[in-house]
Amino acid sequence: MNLLLDPLQFSFIVRALIAAVLVGIVCSVLGTYVVLRGMAFFGDALAHTILPGVVVAFLLGWPLAVGALIMGVFTAVGIGALSSRGVVKEDTAIGVIFAGAFALGVALLSATGNYTVDLAHFLFGNLLGVTNGDLWTTAVLGLIVLLIVFFFYKEFMVISFDPVLATTLRLPATFLRYLLLVLIAVTIVVSLQVVGIALMVAMLVTPAAAASLLTRRLASMMGIAAAIGAFSGAAGLYTSYYLDIASGPAVVLVATAVFALTYLFAPERGLIWRQN
Fold first, then answer.
1. How far apart, in whole angstroms, are the C-alpha atoms of residue 45 and residue 101?
2. How many whole angstroms separate alpha carbon 27 and alpha carbon 207?
3. Which of 58, 59, 44 is nearest to 99 (CA)?
4. Tens-place pLDDT, residues 147-162
5. What's the CATH number for 18-266?
């Protein structure tokens, strides 16, 4: 019991724990749609394209979340607009914007004079540096994402599983697609402090991928993914504390370990189960 309680005597650990659990839940719930729709590359690219917004906010003394949110939403809408016209395929549009925006972010960051330290902070997060303000931002944005997912649950499910049915039902497919892209952008902003830009896609994809091996129902998949994400956040923080390793990578490593165990031992769908 002391192993669990001892770190909690420090207020920054308590804030980090709350942030890690919140991020684990929000990323995992939205990540189910990312996995079902095959949008992992989009999530990874979008996480990297917010770097210019983060750097500009850093240089201007603004909250990093403001710059990240503006750039993330702008990029999500831009990728959607480019690919929706059919002239450029979605993966091509993502690749072009991803490379250009990330290069711009690195170029801007190199001009700050503290390139290595700042880049590491942005890329890999700083979970132990979460402030009360960061925590409130994470909670508010995370709650908004979860509420929108709740209210548009059926619509997102239809466009994810059967786009033809969505057209038949006259659902606003274009609006829902853009809304989902914006939600991914907001979720990336929520997770910026915890796992950073480079590891963001892991929290979006890994818990949801593990959950997809355990159930075929979307609601159950969301619940299981959220549980895995919350556990990964908490366990990763404790691992970071006791092994003295970076907190963001520790969270991702725990999530990856859970996925590996699920891949091996999941009932009916696990590798070992299928070989017996």
1. 9
2. 9
3. 44
4. 999 999 999 999 888 8
5. 1.10.3470.10
